[in-house]
Amino acid sequence: MTARYGRRIAGLRAQPGDEVRDLHVDDAEFLGCVARVSADPAQRLRISQTTLSRCGAYDCYVEGARLEDVVVDGLDTNDMLRVCGSVFRRVVIKGAMGCLQIVPWLHMSYENLQPVYDRANRDFYATVDWALDISQAVGVPLDIRGVPGRLVRRNPETQGLMTFEQALLGSWRSVDLAGTHFSAAPKLLLDEGLEDILLIADQRSPDLAHQVTVLERLRQAGAILPD
Question: Which branch of life, at top level (predicted)?
Answer without folding.
Answer: Bacteria
